[in-house]
Amino acid sequence: MKENPVGVVGVGGLLLGDGVSWHTARTGFACDSVVDYELVLASGEIVHANATARSDLFRALKGGGSNFGIVTSFHLETFPATDLVVGRRSIGMEHIDAVIDAVAAFTDLDQAYHGNALLSAIQYRPDTEASMISVTEINTLNRANNTAFDAVNRNPTLAPATTESLTLAQSANSSALGVLYAGPVTIANDPRVMRYCAEQHESLVEDLKAALGTKAFSTILDFQPLASGANMLGLERPPHNRILFVAGAILTTPNSADRFPQVYQKVAAMVQRIEAFATSVGSHDEFVYPAYADAARDPLGSYGAVNVQHIRDVAKRYDPDGFFPA
Ligand SMILES: Cc1cc2nc3c(=O)[nH]c(=O)nc-3n(C[C@H](O)[C@H](O)[C@H](O)COP(=O)(O)OP(=O)(O)OC[C@H]3O[C@@H](n4cnc5c(N)ncnc54)[C@H](O)[C@@H]3O)c2cc1C
Ligand SMILES: *[C@@H]1O[C@H](CO)[C@@H](O)[C@H](O)[C@H]1NC(C)=O
Ligand SMILES: *[C@@H]1O[C@H](CO)[C@@H](O)[C@H](O)[C@H]1NC(C)=O
Ligand SMILES: *[C@@H]1O[C@H](CO)[C@@H](O)[C@H](O)[C@H]1NC(C)=O
């Protein structure tokens, strides 16, 4: 559970928790770009881990979290920075079926070459006292003229759509977030499950309106297409396309911290219902994205038995007394 507002994201947690970005389809998780870690082991010894020195530790650090030492330097492989085309549009909930089908179709196309990313979210807004769909369409190669978003763009918008070209620094400049979230859940790319998520969101909103009043909260429920990579995450099991689903509520009135547990319970219960539904139709996925996981989740345990054993073996080798709680 995160208190609101939570602000700027640190490099350490992002790189140790994998790191997804608009560039993920082309360049993988942020941790996939790390070529060398300098870390302080529990013994106090300062070591490097990379592809040739301590390659076992190097592999374990790619998604294995902060269980082996304190990383004092990350050496990253870089790629040329291009400006991003960022398109935003808001769409009425009556078009949710068409948007979900468009998200599923987008997820099934390989976007790596074209540099596209799509983030769609359902949000309840206290100002309009209604939910809407908010879509962010990104091209990381600064191309404004691609056709990848046509199926989403065929839906009428609530306000004129905007498109701008931003530097990476500009686009990353507004990431403060005040949110209480539960999850995340990974599902196979299955429109039935996304529709169920949308229905469950509406019942969460009704529930929160009754508990808090219509102006005291907003919500966010994201669908994030997910790529795989050469790391500890075990995303090759099975190699299907995935949607990372994250749900949260934001309390918008001051001094509402005493409401956090009650609201968190409601969001967590919704996430459980979604997981149960996804399981019942065979579209639940074991993977728990670590950088989004709350305390109730076991992201490392979700990587598959072989990877979990590797993490345990490496922890035993480099931290024999169990100083770090692996
Ligand atoms: C506003 C916001 C936007 C976000 N956007 C994204 C996003 O676009 N993509 C994404 O993937 N995630 C995103 N996240 C999630 C984010 O990646 C995680 O919250 C991440 O853990 C933040 O890292 P931190 O170093 O700031 O956090 P911290 O809480 O400081 O660290 C997280 C964990 O890592 C450990 N740790 C940190 N640094 C080190 C180190 N050097 N050595 C060893 N252990 C260390 C800490 O002990 C802690 O257990 C977002 C979060 C927020 C709040
Ligand atoms: C890997 O670590 C070794 C040992 O510290 C070091 O000599 C070498 O330069 C490192 N390689 C990279 C790519 O950082
Ligand atoms: C998009 O524009 C680029 C030049 O900026 C051009 O090379 C490309 O063919 C165009 N693509 C489409 C789909 O129109
Ligand atoms: C980020 O936002 C702040 C405050 O709005 C502004 O002063 C700063 O110039 C912005 N930085 C970039 C790189 O856009």
UniProtKB/TrEMBL annotation:
UniProt keyword annotation of Flavoprotein present: yes
Gene3D superfamilies to which the protein is assigned, alphabetical: 3.30.465.10, 3.40.462.20
SUPFAM superfamilies: FAD-binding/transporter-associated domain-like
Lineage start: Eukaryota, Fungi, Dikarya, Ascomycota, Pezizomycotina
Alphabetized UniProt keyword annotations: FAD, Flavoprotein, Oxidoreductase
Source organism of the structure: Apiospora aurea
Protein name in UniProt: FAD binding domain-containing protein
Family: Belongs to the oxygen-dependent FAD-linked oxidoreductase family.
